[in-house]
Amino acid sequence: MHWWQNLRTLWPGALRQQVTRTGLAYSGAIVIVTLAAVLSANNLLFLILAAMLSILAISGFVSKLTLAGLEIDLLLPPHISARRTVRATVRLKNLKRWMPSFSIRFTGAPPSRNGYPSSYDGALYFTVIPGGVAVEEPIDLSFPTRGRHSERTFQLTTGFPFGFAERRETVTLRHDVIVYPCLDPRPSFQSLADSIAGEIEAWRRGPGHDFYRIRPYEALESARHVDWKATAHTRSLQVREFARDEDQMIVIFLDLDATADQRAWFETAVECAAFVAFHLSETGHRVRLRTQDFDLASPAEGDIYAILGYLALVSCRKGARPPGPDQSSPLQIVLTANPERMSALGWGRGQGSRILGPGTLGEEPLEEEASPSEQPLAL
Predict the structure, then answer these.
(1) What's the pTM value of the predicted model, to 2 decimals?
(2) How many Å apart are CA 168 and CA 110, to the nearest integer?
(3) CA distance 276 to 355
(4) CA–CA separation, 35 vs 336, rounded Å?
(5) pLDDT tens per residue, range 93-134
(6) Measured between alpha carbons, how far is 89 from 180 in angstroms, rounded to an integer?
(7) Does residue 179 contact residue 81 with C-beta atoms inside 8 Å?
């Protein structure tokens, strides 16, 4: 099929259009009629040849006019996580008030154009877009990596009116989109979050005013908390347990000191911090994220999305000196490429605290990634 691909690229303006099989057959018919007209000097054949060439010229002009004056806008949700499919809306507006556009196909740009996979691998087909009218259709997008994505490239294609060639226009939508780290659970992330939740539940049982639960009496406990009504019903000693007035805060420290060889570990640590912080915040717990250049407690100083926004853009920095241990909470989760150093500084000594280093989170080899890139642009 290489000969077919080569013939398709011989069409004038090959960068913007491709000859179809119908166009190739029509071009062959023109060549045959041309030879017959020249060899026979028949005026009727010359008239037929002129009509065929006119149809070919009109087809190219109308095809170009069909794609002219189209404007694309992409409406994205406010919060996007890497490697998760999100529902967006494509708005395609025909700026030509006097002429509709027919047979428009909307696709993602081929990967070879920008060096990384397109965020959209589906296709939309618009039969007709009336003049001055905007149409909207939902699409599913996904972003393979966290970070700032500033460009998304799409392609508009039409074969109207006769299908001799497919004319293409590539449109790049430019605006910044912050993509959070992937929030999908991994077994190691989920077990870590569950164990932290268990530690918090154990902490919540303590002196306070809010009733927590009734449980069986344990040896050497004070009799003043015995619930005599429950004891009478169950015929065994039951005690009232109260919740602490304030939940324990979870401190997550992400050490930015990592080398280029530890980049895979650092990306896993970022995703772990994002997942644990988001999971605990969603269940109503207080979370504090610290790094060498960031410190924010949620919900007191900002919502969880402020933390995720920082984690979307954070990068490792070799030689960054970590601060001393956090005194605001004994429950500390330390993610570092240098566990011995962090332990020597006094981190992770509280009950339930953990220092997690390379090899503890099941990090995977990191693939080479191109810089993400991609907003309304009139053709």
Answers:
(1) 0.72
(2) 12
(3) 14
(4) 77
(5) 999 988 899 999 998 876 544 444 456 777 899 999 999 999
(6) 20
(7) yes
